[in-house]
Design goal:
alpha/beta, Spore Coat Polysaccharide Biosynthesis Protein SpsA, Chain A, seven-stranded mixed beta sheet
């Protein structure tokens, strides 16, 4: 099957080259019976991230680049572009979301694929299950908003079987799930799209599995995750309940 890692980047020049090398040299060869591809979605990063990817494409035939506007268009726009390209052009059977800054361990990728092979449709890399963790170096406010945000989703959506709603490390099956979604509705500009995507997958009957991940410290630059996103969280909960009640 074709499995595409969709990786959004913006000013990741210090890590994207090493990430490409790690995936293609050390990780993908360990995954059998699947064609592994990496699709980088970049908004013409000023630091030349996309130029590094262009150069790496000469070395790795299954590396692809999707360029957006010459300004940061946001995660939602990047994923709409990336998921659409992965399905229409790369004929993806599954799409993974993963960051380029090594906060997501690339050596965890085979674990996601193994669960996909067992028949799961949506695999979430969870920081809040046994053996999962967040960096001890995080500030108290970031820890607070991360933990409380997930509790808000659990209680607000009555989804007590899920522990990490905002993880950015996940794999989704295309057939019967992603291929039936309107990405423009699902992917908002903020991180709450992750919860909406989870809801849309479960709504379609997806078998969901959480696996533990150790979420690492960002090597360079600033985090793209806002610390206080309570309003957006409540907004997406309201949208989901409206959809539930109208179904």
């Amino acid at each position: 099957m074709n499995i595409v890692i969709a990786m959004p980047t913006f000013n990741e020049a210090k890590t994207i080259g090493r990430m490409c090398d790690t995936l293609f040299k050390d990780v993908f060869p360990k995954i059998k019976n699947h064609k592994m591809m990496l699709l980088v979605m970049d908004d013409m990063s000023p630091d030349g991230t996309w130029k590094i990817v262009e150069n790496k494409k000469k070395k790795y035939k299954n590396l692809y680049l999707s360029l957006g506007r010459e300004q940061k268009g946001g995660l939602g726009a990047a994923y709409i572009r990336g998921f659409s390209y992965a399905i229409a052009t790369l004929k993806a059977d599954a799409i993974m979301e993963m960051d380029a800054d090594f906060q997501h361990d690339p050596f965890d990728v085979p674990r996601f694929v193994a669960e996909f092979d067992k028949g799961y449709d949506y695999i979430l890399g969870s920081r809040y299950v046994t053996n999962g963790s967040i960096p001890k170096e995080w500030s108290l406010d970031r820890k607070f908003f991360s933990v409380v945000g997930n509790l808000i989703y659990q209680i607000g959506l009555l989804m007590f079987d899920v522990h990490d709603f905002t993880t950015g490390f996940r794999l989704a099956r295309v057939k019967g799930f992603l291929d039936s979604m309107n990405f423009a509705r699902v992917f908002s500009k903020s991180f709450v799209y992750k919860t909406r995507l989870l809801y849309e997958m479960k709504k379609r009957g997806a078998k969901v599995k959480e696996i533990p991940i150790v979420f690492g410290l960002r090597i360079t630059g600033d985090s793209k995750m806002p610390t206080n996103n309570v309003f957006e969280s409540l907004k997406v909960i309201a949208v989901i309940w409206k959809d539930r009640l109208s179904s």
